[in-house]
Amino acid sequence: MNTRRVSAILNTFLTAIVFLAGCSKQPAQGVRVTEVIVAIKPGVYVGQVHSGMTLQQVIAALGQPDDTNNSVLDYVKLGLQIIPGKGDIVHIVGIGYPFLGGTKEGIFIGSSRNSVIQAYGEPTSVVQLKPGYEVLKYKTPAVNFQLHDGKVDWLATLFPITGQ
């Protein structure tokens, strides 16, 4: 593969990441992908994916998923999993590694259990999974944090079910 083609592919990838983050500017020369941050507002949006979107609108915004299984759109390279409810409306957005974003409260993949509780208070419920794993569930905002050895390794935000 020649250098110009590699450069074009990298530019397209960086532009897509910036688009996902909702930024209207092109990345600065030499920007590293790890510097791009995607905002999460539980129950409302994850980057360009927001409450009320259809799966088709998600694909239009993010491109084709890396995998699709039972209508679930899996964007492995972005660390996103889009799960539909009725009428193919986005209901749950799962977020894991290598997702490049966090909440306005400063919760990211890798945040500590204490950080989550400081940001959101005591969870509505806690589910113990296999040893080393637990889920902190919150009704308001509608978000669940899966912890592995006390660190967030997955979170899922639930969008309201529309009157479909």
How would you summarize what this structure contains?
This protein is α+β, with helices and mostly antiparallel strands and 164 residues long. It folds into 2 domains: 1-35, no CATH class; 37-158, no CATH class.
Element-level helix/strand string: HEEEHEEEEEHEEEE
What does the average pLDDT come to? Answer: 82
Helix count, DSSP H or I runs of 4 or more residues: 3
Total number of beta strands: 12
Largest sheet: 8 strands, antiparallel
Oligomer: single chain
Strand order of the largest sheet: 4-5-6-7-12-11-10-9
Helical fraction equals 10-25%
Our Rg estimate from Cα atoms comes to 17 Å
Q: Which overall shape is indicated by the principal axes computed on the Cα atoms?
A: globular
The percentage of residues in β strands lies in 25-35%
Number of domains: 2
Give the structural class: alpha+beta
Distance between the termini: 48 Å
- Identify low-pLDDT runs: 1-35
